[in-house]
Amino acid sequence: MGTLLHFKNIYTEAFENCKPDFVVLLLKAYFIFCVLMLTMAFYAFIYRVATGFDF
Length: 55
Prior knowledge:
Elements: H1 2-14, H2 21-50
């Protein structure tokens, strides 16, 4: 749990004094997009391992 709080602090500090505001929004949207893509990749890998996909 401490690691997640550490990452949260790093994330919030990264955008603390960042200007202009539209760049901050763009970077946050890109971060969410990357997290979604990584989540789908992990899901696909685990699904293929669990269903016996022949690599």
